[in-house]
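Final report, section 2: Outcomes. Of the targets proposed, Acyl-coenzyme A dehydrogenase is the one most frequently requested by collaborating groups, and we therefore present its record in full.
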Amino acid sequence: MLTLLLIVLAIAGLLVVMRREAGATPALALLGVLGLVGVVFGAPVIGTLLLIGAAAVAVAGLPALRSKWLTPRIFATFKKVAPKVSATERTALEAGSVSWDGELFSGKPQWQSLLDFKDDGLSDEEQAFLDNQCSKAAGMCNAWDIARERADLPQALWDFLKKEGFFGMIIPKEYGGLGFSAKAQSMVLQKLSANETLMVTVGVPNSLGPGELLLKYGTQEQKDHYLPRLADGREIPCFGLTGPRAGSDATSLPDTGVVCKQVINGEEVVGVRLNFEKRWITLAPIATVVGLAFRLFDPENLLGEEEDRGITLALIPRDTQGMDIGRRHHPIGSPFMNGPIKGKDVFVPLDTIIGGPDMIGQGWRMLVECLSIGRCITLPSGATGTARYALGWSGGFTRVRRQFNVPVAEMEGVQEPLARMASLAYISAATVYQTANLIDHGEKPAVPSAILKSQLTEFQRVLLSDAMDVHGGKAVTLGPRNYLGIGYSANPVAITVEGANIMTRNLMIFGQGAIRCHPYVLEELAAKDANDVKAFDKAFFGHAGLIFGNAARAFTLGFGLGKPSVPFSGPAVGYAQDIARLSAGFGLCADAAMASLGSTLKKREMLSARLGDILSNLYLASMVLKQWHTGNKVEGEEALLHYSMQFLLNRAEQAFVEIFDNLPNRALGKVLNVVVMPTGRRWNKPHDDLARDIAQRVSTQSALRSKLLTNTWDKDDGTESNPLARYNALLKEYDRAEAIYRTVNKAYAKGELPQTALHPEARVEAALEKGLINEEDAAFMRTFEAEVLEMLTVDDFAYDAFANDKSTLIDHNAAPAKASPQAETSVK
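The predicted structure is given below as tokens.
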């Protein structure tokens, strides 16, 4: 009995010590005391084993002892197996900052640190711009006209965007810009996502491009000259990074600049001779100034002793001799300005280098630091805005579209995608807003930028597919009435640009996060590079304590023991506590993968992707909880919270299972499974009841629908028709219409109306004639049905409308040509 008691006490005590990461001394004391109790009171075997364990802890855990023999051996092995970090990788790792992503990597997230990022909302000026200028800009767009008729935004819209400062949102007011917060910039792009070409056109100059690079690194002369001109649209910028042989691997760009001298106006000038070929450059066809990334060489040592000076950035006027610019690519689905730029022997003076000569060779660092913010805002905001519009259109369409005498929104096959769309829009809005709030507090979220870009654009892909499905023929027939199809076809652009999602998911999220966000890995690598065994000892054994701590936390929390205190209330409490459980499991699995695979983990991209999936889903779930905690709640939102959290946590657990099943060390996979999920999986996919409730609310005039569509263009106040406003107007009248539908259809089913009354309009007139409804109701239904029919109608065109070369048209219904008399005779 004493033996069993000592075993239980030892296990329980060690779990407590490990959970608290209390170090070797408490563990040594615990095992020593229990061992002595066993030896003295009649359990010598277990007592001896416990004392041996205490001795092992002392030798391996006490710094004074381990530093003599253990640490040097581990350090020697670590230097052999640790991954080599290239200069470009180190630059990327050191860019940006670590905030909530680091908490999730720790395995013991401190929720208050997230809540401490207070949200002051938008300023009155920012909200007014969103309500007025953004609404007017969105109201000037017709997707068909932009994509198929003119392949450009209307001139009046270009003029308006320049006049109102849309291209200067990130430029401070002292330079003539709007000086907007990151949250305001995000909300603007979400509202402009009513049209994807408009969103891209405004988003790119305010993202990775000359404006942000000049703000952070430009010389004062460059700022004074360019920033006011960029802010008011006198200059249209583009940035040339990618090319035929340098896409995702931007550090391998083959474009070169050579330092040389050239005589200009009789004076010898030191400058750079550039040769480059860029493709897929947004705004290039119309840009007046080109930001350019290239590899700089100084073979004559005009600037110093180094020949290879590294990646450098320059700002080059469009009319510079030797630059070929103006042709266009044809991006799938959307005609936003995009094209190639070429240059042969283009000479530019040194003062075109962004930041001047002092920033030579700093281009890669400049790019990744800017990208960490831009990738958090532009494409994620566009995806979020698209999600909200698609949800609004789909909810309205499925409510007014009737089949089998009921709205299709009442059919469970339609309710399932509607609920999923609502959840993805809800998660996206919370994540992009709260991450922008982090940026407004000075954070530069490098790893979250990869999470947002890949996850939210993938959400957009799923959501647009769902929207197409529930719209059916309405959305697959292109024309001026189709508000969805062109945006759907343009979605691959968001998936591909600013770091293709395949690369981002498989390489960047965990690959960068494992070193950048981990509490100890960066310190261990730094100690290795410095050959500092003392620093390594501190980092490595702190790391070991973290591993034991995460194992203990994951295991005990898996049984529901020792749940952490969290600063939430209501339904958020349980979710926050389970994110903490999965965070501990994630930290343990991350360390297990790195330890068991070492440098080969870089090549195990599928495992790396799954680890990234866990981190991504925990990050998204955390942002949803913060938004729920700080935001105003409406009726029906709790169901959406439950659906969204269960959706994300189910995906996180699925990624865990796939890691357990695919680790090369099968024994390690099985052990991790037992430790992280001792009682099995906890989260199923969201229940059908939640889906039914959410679908009902987003397809009717409800508080939840209104909240999800806040700050979209939802007024019929533009020069172009607004389908969202029209659906909202129909939903406002829907309850009255539904009551009349029931009366009329019931009478028809009973045979009280003529069997020839097959159309709703005919049944309304027949019901009026029979006295089943009054003239007021009939007049209401005539107007209502006319608008419904307009929203269901698709476009048709002349037979020859789509042929650019009319001479190639085939008249398939032409009368057969008559054979000549000679031919008829010869046949006979």
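The CA atoms of residues 417 and 466 lie 6 Å apart.
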